[in-house]
Amino acid sequence: MEILGVLTQIYPKFSIFVLIFTRLFAFFYTFSMFRREMASIRLLITLSFVLSCYVLMLSASADVTDNLLSLIFFLHAMVQFVIGFASGLIMNIILEVFSAIGQIISTQIGLSAASLFDPKFGVITSLTHFYVMVGTIIFLEMNGHLMMIDTLVKSFTALPVGVLITQFYGSSIASFSAIIFSGSILVSITVIAAVLMTNISMAFISKFAPQFNLFSIGLNLTILIGLLCITLSFQIYVDHGHALINEVLLFFKHFIMGLKQHG
């Protein structure tokens, strides 16, 4: 009889735990840094399980049905999945910005043919892989992962699992994703301008000196100047990387709070 009494107290908590776990697992599974070959499913489940236990101990009791097979519980689970999935998409913008920077610069300086396969992004150039790795280091160096997890944990206080959201402003994510293009252009504009000036100079040289072999020297010169500009503007990339990551994390926090206000 004592065991039955304990089970009746644990079962309501278990339903809340399942909802918390659903939101966290959907987030970690969507976030590119943890996807595919970068992290196994066991690692994602373990991390989600540990954080779910931590959140469950901190969160207040929510008004959620005890029947795990009911329709209302299924709706609550779907809401948590959508919140976790949307949060993962927002955090993916960080890596997509760094990937776009590498792809733009690689195309401009003629390194688009030097490609490799990355489990997160598919076929990308080696320079793009370098920019993504440096961006990931910047993200970890500024404790972005801790800020991300802190926002996730606090989201259960701002938006408890027992709340059904009636309005989901997914258009705000689509509007904010424009930072992928604006941020990548802002960082790579130095290299783009230098390569453009190089191509214009090569065009003038080939016009006034036809014996000058544009294809044998021009391509090598473009790559050399492009790599030189990458080296000289690397600090700009680091500084703008910090600013872009902070902007994404701030939007992530405001997005969760916005769901609370409109939920």
Description:
It is built from nine helices and two strands; from the N terminus they run αααββαααααα. By secondary structure, the chain is mainly alpha-helical. It has a two-stranded antiparallel ribbon with strand order 1-2. The longest helix is centred in the middle third of the chain and has 39 residues, at 71-109. The protein starts with a helix and ends with a helix.
Which regions have little confidence, pLDDT < 50, spanning 5+ residues? none
Tell me the helix content: over 70%
**Sheet with most strands:** 2 strands, antiparallel
What is the strand content?
under 5%
Output the keywords.
mainly alpha; 263 residues; 9 helices; 76% helix; 2 strands; two-stranded antiparallel ribbon
Summarize the structure.
With 263 residues, this protein is mainly alpha-helical. Helix content is 76%, strand content 3%. Helix 1 (2-30) crosses helix 2 and helix 1 runs parallel beside helix 3.
Write the layout of secondary structure elements.
Layout: H1 2-30, H2 41-58, H3 71-109, E1 115-118, E2 122-125, H4 126-141, H5 144-158, H6 171-176, H7 179-208, H8 214-232, H9 234-262
Antiparallel strand pairs: 1-2
